[in-house]
TrEMBL record:
<dbReference type="GO" id="GO:0004825">
    <property type="term" value="F:methionine-tRNA ligase activity"/>
</dbReference>
<dbReference type="GO" id="GO:0005524">
    <property type="term" value="F:ATP binding"/>
</dbReference>
<comment type="similarity">
    <text>Belongs to the class-I aminoacyl-tRNA synthetase family.</text>
</comment>
<keyword id="KW-0648">Protein biosynthesis</keyword>
<dbReference type="GO" id="GO:0005829">
    <property type="term" value="C:cytosol"/>
</dbReference>
<dbReference type="InterPro" id="IPR023458">
    <property type="entry name" value="Met-tRNA_ligase_1"/>
</dbReference>
<dbReference type="Pfam" id="PF09334">
    <property type="entry name" value="tRNA-synt_1g"/>
</dbReference>
<keyword id="KW-0436">Ligase</keyword>
<dbReference type="InterPro" id="IPR015413">
    <property type="entry name" value="Methionyl/Leucyl_tRNA_Synth"/>
</dbReference>
<feature type="domain" description="Methionyl/Leucyl tRNA synthetase">
    <location>
        <begin position="3"/>
        <end position="274"/>
    </location>
</feature>
<dbReference type="InterPro" id="IPR029038">
    <property type="entry name" value="MetRS_Zn"/>
</dbReference>
<feature type="domain" description="Methionyl-tRNA synthetase anticodon-binding">
    <location>
        <begin position="286"/>
        <end position="385"/>
    </location>
</feature>
<dbReference type="GO" id="GO:0006431">
    <property type="term" value="P:methionyl-tRNA aminoacylation"/>
</dbReference>
<keyword id="KW-0030">Aminoacyl-tRNA synthetase</keyword>
<keyword id="KW-0067">ATP-binding</keyword>
<dbReference type="Pfam" id="PF19303">
    <property type="entry name" value="Anticodon_3"/>
</dbReference>
<dbReference type="InterPro" id="IPR033911">
    <property type="entry name" value="MetRS_core"/>
</dbReference>
Length: 386
């Protein structure tokens, strides 16, 4: 095959060291392996107006010998498989089908570079497996290494051989590596589970601009954690996840969601119920007696929301899972406003007891459904509830 070669540096250029115009979308910052604008994987020879990213010169192409992954052999099998994945996010499934319908070309999996995983064959000491090929194997090899290190060398197998459901979390620029290339490698090897779901996210921007660590346009977690608790950030990001389209993180939205939702809706519910139990019932949950209609209805609603959250989490609809819990917290607040236990505690203590017992049951449910989003607060609440 031919590979880009920079005469001034006297070296072959790895895909990321060449840049040019994408032949599919005309984006002019496409790299030799992928276009960040349209997400398509590329070969260096596809680029128009290719330049060397090290010296800015124009590379030449030289002949060199490489190993290939015969991707073309998997085209039909992959299309059959992807078309059946009705539970995938539409953007992931549609992107993959379009990608496969465009035809698969065999791709070189080695490069003339000094770093990386060596080729386990004599005579190829100056070549390496290229990163897009070997990185995804890490999912499997890390499982096997983990099993070995634990003294249970077979323990990786249930995750890979018995129809376990493997979820691959990533950003949208990584979709083809996990819905085409890695599945092709798994099919070629045989006997291992293909991905069950690839819930790739779109992009999250920061205050209207693309995040960039090199330009310091980022929220650095150590800085954040010096000032604030982890849970509000987890909450705001989960509530605003770019599951189906790009979304934006802003500090104004952080403050609003923390104050109006976490504190006003959830925190307030927990605070007023637990302090009433503490003040009026000596911190012992009172006997509820026979539940009236509105208390029974609230408990049934909690059970429904609990089941719904489980289904949403399994389907990786995380925003909806979170919304479901917050809606339950709102319902519980309305229940308290209707039942007015702070008044009933003086006029009808049994009714106040039932209201608080029911509200604590709902809080106990929320503690569980919100645990994936607010693990630190949930643990604190769990301790408070005894
Ligand atoms: Zn493009
Ligand atoms: Zn150069």
């Amino acid at each position: 095959m031919v590979q880009p070669y920079c005469a001034s540096e006297q070296r072959y250029l790895a895909d990321r060291y060449v840049e040019g115009t994408c032949p599919h979308c005309a984006f002019d910052g496409a790299r030799g392996d992928q276009c960040d604008n349209c997400g398509r994987t590329l070969d260096p020879k596809d680029l128009q107006g290719m330049t060397c990213r090290i010296c800015g010169g124009t590379p030449e192409f030289r002949e060199t010998e490489h190993f290939f992954l015969k991707l073309s052999a998997f085209e039909d099998q992959l299309l059959d498989w992807v078309r059946k994945q009705d539970h995938w996010r539409p953007n992931v499934r549609n992107f993959t089908i379009g990608y496969l319908e465009g035809g698969l070309h065999d791709r070189a999996i080695t490069r003339d570079i000094e770093w990386g995983v060596p080729i386990p064959l004599d005579g190829y000491e100056d070549k390496r497996l290229y990163v897009w090929f070997e990185a995804v194997i890490g999912y499997l090899s890390a499982s096997i290494e983990w099993a070995h290190n634990n003294g249970t060398p077979e323990a990786w197998k249930p995750f890979w051989e018995d129809g376990s459901r493997a979820y691959y979390f990533m950003g949208k620029d990584n979709i083809p590596f996990h819905t085409v290339i890695w599945p092709a490698m798994l099919l070629g090897y045989g006997g291992l589970n293909l991905p069950y779901d690839v819930p790739a996210n779109e992009y999250l921007n920061l205050e209207g601009f693309k995040l960039s660590t090199s330009r310091n346009w980022a929220v650095w977690l150590p800085d954040y954690l010096d000032r604030y608790e982890p849970d509000p950030l987890r909450y705001v990001i989960a509530a605003n996840l770019p599951e189906t389209s790009d979304s934006d993180f802003s500090w104004r939205e952080y403050v609003r969601r923390n104050n109006d939702e976490l504190v006003a809706t959830y925190g307030n519910l927990v605070h007023r119920v637990l302090s009433m139990v503490s003040r009026n019932f000596d911190s012992v949950l009172p006997d509820p007696g026979e539940l009236d209609e509105v208390s029974g209805a609230l408990l049934a609603e909690a059970q429904r929301r609990f089941d719904e959250t489980e289904a949403y989490l399994e389907a990786v609809r995380l925003r909806q899972a979170l919304q479901s819990s917050m809606a339950l917290a709102q319902t519980a607040n309305r229940y308290l406003d209707q039942k007015e236990p702070w008044r009933a505690v003086r006029s009808d203590k049994a009714d106040a007891a039932q209201t608080l017992w029911t509200a604590v049951s709902v809080i106990n449910c929320l503690k569980t459904t919100l645990y994936p989003f607010l693990p630190f607060s949930s643990q604190k609440l769990h301790t408070m509830l005894g």
